[in-house]
Specification:
There is one protein chain. This protein has two domains: 241 residues, Spore Coat Polysaccharide Biosynthesis Protein SpsA, Chain A, CATH 3.90.550; 70 residues. The radius of gyration is 25 Å and the shape is elongated. Helix 9 packs antiparallel against helix 10. It is an alpha/beta fold. The two termini are 44 Å apart. The protein has an eight-stranded mixed beta sheet, with helices on both faces. The chain has ten helices and eight strands. Helix 2 links the parallel strand 2 and strand 3. The chain is 46% helix and 15% strand.
Length: 326
């Protein structure tokens, strides 16, 4: 990584929110204090902001955000509906890139250590265009979540994805990286796998996961499974190739069974063959249905991509200049 002389940047924190009424005011206070400290230490410039993205919250989150945005340190981008975590992050980044030198995406629950921002900025000043926040361990997760997360990352690497293990959308992107990201137009977003493919100089910052300040996680099991499936189907075609390989193996197995059956017939063995027929039928039927399901996922993704629907629609933007407070 080459050393580059860079100006102290304007930093925008992009914070996606979905039903975060229990924690959003505490989050705003903590982030405001952190940005003020970074300004005093001359690590970021005046004009840095916290940008909340309301992803169609159904509770009191939006009203609270409007109150918070009376302070010009904050702005609010409110989406017209619930477009999902990845689209909310993208909406915030694409809005912020007009004004910021660097953007850091961070969750609203304060579990991702905000003190790691100092290291993010150090990596940026050293020449990185992308900096990934990676959790040190998964001790705070339950046994099931830890096992499934480990299996998922191993599967993604096996399928050829360049996703960073234990990285969950806590990252810094420079304006150059944001401009490049805006060129990607796919509807099925999986930013954790997409951003590493851009090829910019990057580095990793490790951090400890904290306990959630209030409320409960909005990332349900179904949402995690959907994200996992999006990650697999949007970043790799290897499952389709595996289907071809599996089909070839089943074909070989069928040929062997045919030869065995013919030999038995020629030798006059009276083999009823009920069990063999049943097992072979179940095996081939199961593989066929599994293959059709995988192919269906890809066809569904193609179907959604060909529609060219917007990935998000912004309803309102609350933006207050500092002069308005005087």
């Amino acid at each position: 990584m080459s050393e580059t002389m860079r100006e102290i940047p304007i930093l925008y924190l992009v914070v996606p929110c979905y039903n975060e009424e229990e924690v959003v005011e505490k989050t705003a206070a903590v982030m405001r204090e952190k940005l003020e400290r970074l300004e005093r230490e001359n690590k970021i410039r005046t004009g840095s902001r916290i940008m909340f993205v309301n992803d169609g919250s159904k509770d009191d989150t939006l009203r609270l955000l409007h109150g918070i945005a009376r302070d010009s340190r904050f702005s609010v981008v409110s989406l017209a509906g619930n477009y999902g975590h990845q689209s909310a992050i993208l909406a915030g980044m694409m809005t912020a890139k007009k004004y910021a030198d660097v953007v850091v995406t961070i969750d609203a629950d304060l579990q991702q250590d905000i003190e790691a921002l100092d290291l993010f900025l150090e990596k940026y000043m050293a020449g990185c265009e992308v900096v990934y926040g990676v959790r040190n361990d998964r001790h705070s997760d339950g046994v099931f979540k830890k096992a499934t997360a480990t299996a998922y990352y191993n599967l993604m690497h096996l399928l050829g994805s360049r996703v960073i293990t234990n990285h969950a959308d806590y990252r810094l992107l420079s304006k150059k990286a944001l401009d490049a990201l805006s060129e990607y137009q796919e509807t099925n977003l999986f930013l954790r796998g997409l951003i590493p493919t851009m090829g910019f100089s990057s580095d990793v910052v490790y951090f400890d996961v904290k306990a959630r300040e209030a409320g409960h996680s909005k990332y349900t099991l179904s949402k995690m499974l959907t994200l996992a499936m999006d990650g697999i189907t949007s970043m790799s075609v290897r499952p389709l190739r595996l289907i071809g390989g599996l089909g070839f193996l089943v074909f070989l197995f069928s040929m062997v069974m045919c030869v065995i059956s013919l030999v038995d017939w020629a030798m006059g063995n009276n083999v009823p063959g009920y069990t063999t027929t049943l097992l072979v039928s179940l095996l081939i039927g199961g593989i066929t249905l599994l293959s059709l399901g995988i192919i269906g996922e890809y066809i569904g993704k193609i179907y959604m991509e060909t529609k060219h629907r917007p990935r998000y629609i912004i309803d309102t933007v609350v933006w207050r200049e500092a002069e308005e407070e005087k």
